């Protein structure tokens, strides 16, 4: 009898300690600044079902770029209902030879290939590369914060969707981080060991100066 009481009390404690949220949802109100916990909530009385539906993933993103890549993100900033819920989704269209350049973010990512074949991989923090050609229906996980990439290595366009366990994953792409800003060329040369000519070439491609 006593052990049953203990089990019941323990169950109650566990369920109380996991019940942290006091609202069902918190659709972002962009009139107020973002905080580490996310945005302020819109008044629920002003919401309709359309606040919880996002239709932009039905069409490819703009693919007129050096990577032959279309990206449509459903993050809290584009789909405010995701605010505070800890997940998001992105549509990826890769033309033949198209690339998602090596990048990282603070959330883990799960890719699902819908069409085509994609070489996908990540680099472990011990520098071990884990990569493989994925086919239609395959999923692969890229653990949070590790550098990763995708390349369409097939003869036809590829389509994939990724989900991430953050509404605001914070994408950082290595080439943009190095070459799209005014970080001086000689500093980049020193920290990467790339040739100065190569650094200048990357700055020209990605709009960097200095
Ligand atoms: C939101 O709803 C409140 C009532 O709950 C109303 O007073 C207010 O005008 C609404 N705001 C907008 C922007 O519709
Ligand atoms: C696609 O992106 C290119 C390059 O940034 C731009 O010139 C073009 O206007 C964009 N197309 C559309 C439909 O937005």
TrEMBL record:
Chain segments annotated as coiled-coil in the UniProt record: none
Localization per Swiss-Prot or TrEMBL: Secreted, Extracellular space, Apoplast
SUPFAM superfamilies: RmlC-like cupins (SSF51182)
GO molecular function: manganese ion binding
Regions crossing the membrane: none
Signal sequence residues: 1-19
S-S bridge residues: 26-41
Pfam family, one: Cupin_1
Cellular component aspect of the GO annotation: apoplast; extracellular matrix
Transferase found in the keyword field: no
Sequence similarity: Belongs to the germin family.
Protein name (database record): Germin-like protein
Organism: Spinacia oleracea (Spinach)
